[in-house]
Every structure is written in C-alpha cells, then in structure tokens.
Design goal:
single chain, alpha+beta, four-stranded mixed sheet, 6% strand, elongated
C-alpha cells in the first residue's frame, strides 16, 4: 500500500459509475472529522486506472490529503462490478450504467426504456420487461437482464401517460403492475378502458396493493358492460 498527493496520476474508467457530488461531500465531512483513508485504500491497476474508490479520491483532492492506494496488475475494468457487488457500494442504476457501457445483451433496451419513461421506478421496469414478470436482481448484478417483454412493457408505459391525466398515483408500482395484468387479458381493449375511465374518473382511488388496484380497474372496465366483461 502506498500514499501520494499526486492525484493527477490516477485515471478514470468510462465503465465505472458516475461520481456523485452528494456522496463526495458526505465523505469530505466524515474524513474531515477523522481521517481513516489509510484503512480503506483505493484500488487501481498498473495503468493507474481507478477500479474502486473514485469517490474517496475526489474527497482527498478536496481536502488536499494524501490518498492511499493499492496497485494490482491482475485487476481490470471487468472486475469493477464484481468488486462493488461484494462491497455493496453500487445501486441498480450503477450496474445498469456499467453493463450498458460494456454492451451486455439487453441492457441497451433497458437503458432506452428507462430514458423514455423516467417516471416508472427501475425495479418496476425490470419486472415489466421480464418475460416471467419476475425481477431477478442477482442476475442483473451478474450482467444478465430479461427484456423479452419489451414491446408489451412499452404499451403499458404509453397507457400510463393517459392515466397520469386522471390519477395522481398512476406511477405507483403496484398500480403499474395491476395495469400490466389487466392489459394481458386477451379481451382487453384500450379504447374501452379509456372510455370507461373518462366516464367515471372519480373511481380511480389509491389502493394498498396490486390486488386492490386490479379489482378497481376491473370494476371500472366492466362497469355497465353487458358483454366482453373480463376477469381473472
């Protein structure tokens, strides 16, 4: 382990997560009170590319303190996700950004969907895109994502834009998944749903879970319908 104040020798890696100013500021306050940087050195490879610890490096720069580091020629940017998975430093967004940059299959579609529909929570998007309706966080951390349901998820997201004009909780994850369930019915019709909602908008109320939301949507959809009623 070595220390230095020559911060310029360190290089950033595109695939690493973005430096978050808020996190750096927290570190600055903590290190300012008690400097324990020597207990948690940053890790870099022989090219001096920072594999882990970019936020600590930025905090050291601000405080003008020596940064402690370990250099290992056996680590590369391909190890970034694994290292952060074990240390629990990364969020889902960090993994998605990393694997999108690394061009892992499916992550381009996931990132595109997230960019197009930012009001839907990431965890809900992962569920919508999955063919089996299951969000597999472990697979995500290992660079695997299921986007087989992409085109159907887009239809759900577009329908949510309609509901947003009538319902303050349209992007509640439980409502989103209930709508996804309703739209999966073979006899479902958006035109009918739209007409029914516009006729009785006050029927849209906040519910406590997906089951209640689905029951509410079914009541609205089937209201005064003599035929083509749907149920699950």
């Amino acid at each position: 382990m070595e220390q230095t104040i020559n911060y310029e020798q360190f290089k950033s890696i595109t695939a690493n997560r973005e430096v978050h100013t808020g996190h750096v500021n927290k570190l600055v306050k903590a290190i300012g009170k008690k400097n324990l940087l020597h207990l948690n050195p940053i890790l870099c490879n022989e090219k001096m590319e920072v594999i882990d610890g970019q936020h600590r490096l930025e905090a050291a720069k601000i405080l003008k303190l020596p940064i402690w580091y370990n250099m290992d020629s056996n680590v590369s940017e391909d190890d970034i996700a694994s290292i952060n998975s074990n240390s629990k430093n990364w969020s889902q967004l960090d993994y998605i950004n990393y694997y999108t940059i690394k061009k892992k299959p499916g992550f381009d579609k996931l990132s595109s969907f997230m960019s197009e529909y930012p009001l839907i929570k990431t965890s809900t998007i992962l569920t919508l895109l999955s063919a089996d309706g299951f969000r597999d966080s472990k697979a995500l951390y290992n660079g695997q994502v299921n986007v087989m349901n992409y085109h159907i998820a887009v239809k759900v997201a577009e329908t949510l834009k309609f509901f947003r004009n009538h319902f303050d909780f349209a992007y509640d994850s439980k409502f989103v998944l209930a709508l996804d369930k309703l739209m999966s019915h073979p006899d479902y019709s958006f035109d009918k749903l739209k007409s029914q909602v516009e006729m009785q908008p006050r029927s849209l109320v906040r519910c406590i879970d997906k089951k209640q939301y689905l029951e509410m949507l079914l009541e609205i959809y089937n209201y005064r319908a003599s035929s083509k009623r749907i149920s699950f």
